[in-house]
Amino acid sequence: MSWLQPTLEDEQDIQQLREVQPELYAYAQVLALALRIDSRLLRNLRLRFLPKSSVELETELWFSSLIHTRNVQAATMYSGIARALCDALKNENLERFVSTKAEIAKLTQHWPETDQIEQEMRLAVLEGDEHTLKKNVQRILKALTLAEGDFEKRELARWVKGTLPILKTTTQVDTEQQWLLQYVAASLGFADKWWVEKSELQHLPDALVRALPQRKKQKIGLRLRSGSLEILNPRENLEIIELSTPLPTLVYLDFETSNSIVLDSTDSLLDASRNSTRLETIWIGKSVIIPGHTKTITLRMIDGGGITIENKKFGLDSEKILQYDEARAKKK
């Protein structure tokens, strides 16, 4: 369950709970730090932090409006509500916040590793603990390389996409986090921009490339037209490339352009080149607008592979050359 920032309505609900049901409010605060609330946490946290409360408080919490899902094994709170309760506990009673973290860690040692990782990362995001985030990203990357079989690999990828708080709360990612995000995208083959917009595509390490589940590769044809790059079914007379993920998919496009003609110290023609990069979702029939005077297009795939296409039609603008020659002649 990803951390969501509490809405104004969440904050108002928590404030009302604090004023009307202070005991339930205090109980909900300590439980909110847990990824999920099982019977062991429900009983032990009540006895540890509210020893004078009655057992009915457990039932009251279990069936309260704070709960988003519940089954015979566990319950979860609404994410925004849980975040608001955790923030409030941290601000109001830091000593209890720290004690609750330690108690939950002790009571959840039997949880699966993925649940323990998610629990640690939720708290790390809450506290801005970059070291713990990094450590757990490394644990996940290691687990991905050790996973056996395509089913297990895709299940891990789905877990990462659907549950890790880092994916929706981090405003900037480092290289290892980016590897993780790209692995998930390459494994599941989706085209949503579900990670940080400013992230930079990285070449995946060989160990992660080898650990990717088997995917159906797809060939596409590329055709350059005036001002656009067309994505087509492969056929003769087209630039054919093979994608490592099924369509639709995300790719990075790097454009090397020459936007102007300048003179150097020897009075010779030069082109002033520059590069621009953008993220695009592509599919058969997609037409990608390209900058004017594009010399080369580098298409980089989500698993780190790529290809560079030269625009053979690119050349210095003949009209500008003529104007330049006439101007130089007048000087002489």
Give the secondary structure arrangement, pairings included.
Blueprint lengths: L7 H13 L1 H11 L4 E2 H11 L6 H7 L4 E4 L3 E4 L1 H14 L1 H14 L5 H15 L2 H17 L3 H14 L2 H4 L5 H14 L17 H6 L6 E8 L2 E5 L6 E5 L5 E15 L5 E14 L4 E3 L4 E8 L4 E5 L7 H14 L1
Antiparallel strand pairs: 1-3, 2-3, 4-5, 4-6, 5-9, 7-8, 7-10, 10-11
Helix pairs in contact: 1-2, 1-5, 2-5, 3-6, 5-6, 7-8, 8-11, 9-11
Tags for this model:
332 residues; 13 helices; single chain; four-stranded antiparallel sheet; elongated; 46% helix; disordered C terminus
Give a quick rundown of the structure:
The chain has 332 residues and is an alpha+beta fold.
Structure, explained:
With 332 residues, the chain is α+β, with helices and mostly antiparallel strands. Helices cover 46% and strands 22% of the residues. The chain contains 13 helices and eleven strands. The protein has helices spanning 8-20, 22-32, 39-49, 56-62, 79-92, 94-107, 113-127, 130-146, 150-163, 166-169, 175-188, 206-211, 318-331, and strands at 37-38, 67-70, 74-77, 218-225, 228-232, 239-243, 249-263, 269-282, 287-289, 294-301, 306-310. The strands form three sheets. Strands 6-4-5-9 form a four-stranded antiparallel sheet, with no helix packed on it. The longest helix has 17 residues, at 130-146. It starts with 7 loop residues before the first helix and ends with a helix.
